[in-house]
Specification:
Layout: H1 3-7, E1 10-15, H2 21-24, E2 35-37, H3 53-72, E3 80-82, H4 86-97, H5 104-109, H6 128-131, H7 133-136, E4 214-223, E5 229-235, E6 241-242, E7 251-252, H8 257-260, H9 266-270, E8 294-296, E9 305-307, E10 311-314, H10 321-324, H11 326-334, E11 341-343, E12 355-364, E13 370-378, E14 384-388, H12 394-397, E15 401-403, E16 418-422, H13 423-433, E17 440-445, H14 463-467, E18 469-471
Antiparallel strand pairs: 1-17, 2-4, 3-18, 4-5, 5-16, 6-7, 8-9, 10-14, 11-15, 12-13, 13-14
Length: 498
């Protein structure tokens, strides 16, 4: 009665290895190209509020190996992939880890800091694919059987899996750069990444927990906003944008694989991964004069400017008019950047549909913070005020102001979701916190796992394999302008004759 299971049979050959830092950077001695990325990586899927990064990282490897072998053998088109169920994989891990204390499966699953041995998928390890391979190789399921449930508490729930169990009766076919001065700018809940999808370091770092991601490439030449050159490209499992009002306050952004390989212009990238909630991507207008107000601070460094609290002043000279023009609106739209903002935090601005905010300018303010100045425009009275926020991280600004709904462009999960992990960041994390390692898996899929071969396996049910197989969005750019094409001669204006 293993018809459905056999349709997804895998033979897994696994080699788990810890990569030393000397090996990690060995490609710098000209034995390897300066940049590289894996082919046919599958689209982004997010773990949401569950601690299942290890699950998503493992399934990403399974999906990629399935896709590569399918394309190589002509069983899949190059733009096709099959989504594998993270929900079913996590539930199967819990089932296989069950056992009395001291049993082999308990020993293999008892990892400090995880919850698997407590029947929870919050915290796990990708190496379970190796330790439990003899149970997992016949129990990898298409996503349609068991879609991911983002709500905590559903770790072992998989409604569609029961009919595929051989034991089931219902079985069917199946930074230090800050100046030394008295400057108090509180930061709450700092993250170890910026909204550009780059992992960062800080002069104050504390461990919070672990995270698993999928290594898909590297670029020795890419330079991050923090000034680090070279790093790994990682497929992550985090959402892009900001959380809803009642969720935790994370603000995130990511990019495409080609972006981290320096193969796209920023404009081309914005047509796929616009990161509309990143304040540094908001369109600026009306910046004709300096509006950042500062004052000297006591007997400290006379060249050091200390920010005042929130400041407002009546606009002089009507600078906001340029923000209201049709031309500015057109430029912002073509640039794929939000122009009109709404206040979402009454501690800093006016929360009202009658008020629209426009970014006038931003100034870097040490340790990754920004000092943002805006026009506060009352659409009813037509009055405008200049507003300067205190210095804060872009992640905080993203929860103070937000683009109007019609100007929020969503990142395409088919191509976005990649982060950059600089070598220097890795070195600092490893030296300070330790416990960094990489696993490499060699996976072989049986031909019967592919729907293209169903004619050769007539007794198997491929319906869920077919439901979970789809096309992945593809983007092709002719030049640096993402929307431009070579104009046909018939569409060009004719030459006027005398």
């Amino acid at each position: 009665m293993q018809l459905q299971l056999e349709a997804m049979h895998t033979a897994v050959i696994v080699q788990s290895e810890v990569t030393s830092m000397s090996k990690t950077e060995s490609h710098k001695d000209n034995k390897f190209p300066s940049k590289f990325a894996v082919d046919f990586v599958t689209p982004l899927k997010t773990q949401d509020e569950r601690g299942t990064c290890w699950d998503f990282a493992t399934v990403a490897v399974l999906e990629n190996s399935y896709r590569q072998q399918g394309i190589a053998n002509g069983w899949l088109q190059e733009d096709e992939f099959m989504a594998i169920s993270e929900q079913a994989y996590g539930a199967e891990i819990l089932r296989l880890c069950a056992g009395p204390p001291g049993s082999p499966q308990q020993v293999a699953c008892l990892i400090p800091g995880n919850e698997i041995w407590k029947n929870s998928t919050d915290g796990g390890d990708v190496t379970e694919l190796m330790y439990l391979m003899n149970g997992l190789k016949d129990n990898i399921f298409p996503n349609s059987i068991c879609p991911y449930i983002p709500d905590p508490g559903n770790d072992s729930v998989c409604p569609g899996e029961e009919r595929c169990s051989p034991a089931s009766t219902s079985c069917t076919l199946c930074p230090p750069e800050l100046a030394m001065t008295t400057c108090c700018v509180p930061i709450h809940g700092g993250e170890n990444y910026n909204m550009n999808g780059e992992f960062i370091t800080s002069h104050v770092m504390n461990p919070e927990g672990g995270h698993a991601m999928t290594l898909v490439g590297y670029n020795d030449l890419y330079r991050t906003k923090q000034g680090y050159t070279g790093g790994f490209i990682l497929k992550n499992s985090w959402f892009d944008g900001i959380h809803p009002a009642l969720g935790p306050m994370h603000a995130r952004g990511s990019h495409s694989l080609k972006y981290w390989l320096d193969e796209l212009t920023d404009w081309e990238e914005a047509s796929m991964c616009p990161n509309s909630h990143d304040p540094e991507n908001w369109f600026q207008c009306g910046n004709t004069d300096e509006v950042v107000n500062t004052r000297r601070h006591g007997n400290g460094d006379p060249g050091m400017n200390i920010p005042l609290p929130i400041e407002r002043s009546i606009t002089v000279g009507g600078g906001v008019e340029s923000c209201l023009s049709e031309e500015t609106e057109l430029y912002a739209k073509v640039s794929l950047q939000p122009l009109h903002l709404r206040c979402t935090d009454s501690d800093f601005c006016v929360v009202s549909d009658d008020y629209t905010y426009f970014v006038r300018n931003t100034t870097s303010w040490g340790d990754r913070m920004l000092r943002m100045c805006l026009f506060e425009y009352n659409t009813e009275t037509k009055n405008s005020t200049e507003l300067c926020l205190p210095p804060m991280l872009p992640q905080k600004i993203a929860y103070v102001l937000s683009p109007v709904a019609e100007e929020v462009l969503e990142n395409d999960p088919d191509v976005c979701g990649y982060y950059f992990y600089p070598y220097e960041v890795l070195q600092q994390y490893k030296s300070q916190f330790g416990n960094f390692y990489v696993n490499n898996f060699e996976i072989e899929w049986h031909p019967q796992s592919f729907a293209a071969n169903k004619a050769y396996f007539a007794g198997l049910d491929y319906s869920d394999v077919e439901k979970s197989t789809r096309k992945q969005n593809q983007y092709k750019f002719l030049g640096p302008f993402p929307f431009a094409r070579i104009v046909d001669k018939k569409d060009l204006p004719s030459v006027a004759e005398d």
